[in-house]
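Cross-check.
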Amino acid sequence: MPPKKRGVRPPTLGEAMRARQAEMKARVEKMRLRFVEPILARFPRILPTKPDSAAKYAIVSSLVWFTVGLLMALLLAVKLVFPRLLAPFPWMSFGRLAAAEAAVMTWGALFTGFVGAMFAIVPRTTGTKLWSERIGAQTIMLHDQVVLAGVVLLLIGRTQGIGGLELPWPIDILIVNVMLMVMQNVVATIVRRRERTLAPPLWYFLAAVIVMPVTYAFGNLAAPWYFGVNQQIVSGFALAGTAAGITMLGVGTAYYVLPKATGQPIYSERVALVGFWSFVFAAPWIGQIQSIFGPSQDYLETTAIAFAGWLLIPALCVFVNFWGTLRDAWDKAISEPAVKFVVGGSLFLLFATVLIGVGSLRSMQDVVGLTPWGIATETALAGGLGFFLVAFIYHQFPKMIGRALHSTLLATRQFWIQTIGLLTVVVSMSIAGVVQGDVQISGLKSAAPVSLGNRWEIITEAVRPYFIIRIAGGALVAFGFFILITNLIRTVTLGADADVELPVIESEPEPVAVPA
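Predicted model, tokenized:
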């Protein structure tokens, strides 16, 4: 039998895969050096890599969107009193403007601002640089374009026709893509952390970046395939998940700002943990409170009511933790603007939770269901979260740019002006909701219903004074925000020089002993 011929051994499957991967990496690196690097070198400011670049972009973008959103909200309040205002322009009709204002405040102002807060807070609490400042900046740029496109489409009448989910489906897909980009950056940074213990802000950030894409994607992709009651149930779940995610971003931001601004450790991490899990457990399931006494199943309404009441637990945990942290540092509430806004935000958050819980009860819904009571609830929640964001901006933004805050006095004036304005709106709309409900019930009892036809004018005249008061409150809120813009512009241009606070301080290499 002839001997076998000896030849070259064929590569194993593992060796072939590794060789293929090395070849692909070489091709990608060659393309990067040939095409990408020349562009990045030519436009260094458009795609930055310096620390806090993405956070700065997000903060500035959020301030712009906040300005637009508050002006739109003020215009909506005026149109409820003077409905013929701007009537010749269809794109300025109340329905289109209301949907656009909700998109601007939710995605443009709050979401963008809290994403910037995450990009700044996560590196500081993990001891690790943000996974990619460049991808973070690209995320904010993409998100701004997506929100702008969505607002324009809503104003020209392009909508899904689903309450709360009016944005067209291509915009929804892009928003989910933005959420996934944010999640990638945040999770990758936390995975690479040097601090092994997760601080309370990171609990809320991780939960938010996971909950929001799932609920928003499910609701927007599934809702168009359902009709009637089922569609309302799915959209309610998506809206509750979105609100829960943004609220967790706000609370996580406040959990970072308050200890830093006061120099005191958080009062109790155990209380924070109870509040966190209570909120995660309950918040995504309250979407059905918008349709109590509607055609949906009673058990869904009862479940939503129970979870809405449960939300008082996390709200009280936040309130107790914040006030406990301040037990030996109340003087900071006078000298530090950030502390004022955290305290005010926690009060408005608690107020909003009470309005949600009380307003969801069937006995209360019989009166305030589908009335301005909902405006009061949304205003209190948005006001509390907005205060948390302003607290972060006052505390962190000057440190990012290496400037001292221009005026603490202006910040104090802004706080009191906006607090009075928000309270005016919340209280007036709460009273308007009760008044409207009583007028409707009285009409039914007298066999002369006022909710249909020309008799609706009776309700309009009854609540008109409260809507006028709401305009005054909204004007105060907008004026206070312009004080913030003025203060920040003067901080950038006229503020005294200060040390720039880097998110991560690189340790210097230890000196090496050289023998003589």
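Residues 47-494 form a domain with the Cytochrome C Oxidase; Chain A fold (CATH 1.20.210.10). Residues 507-516 have pLDDT under 50 and may be disordered. Passed to J.P. for a second look.
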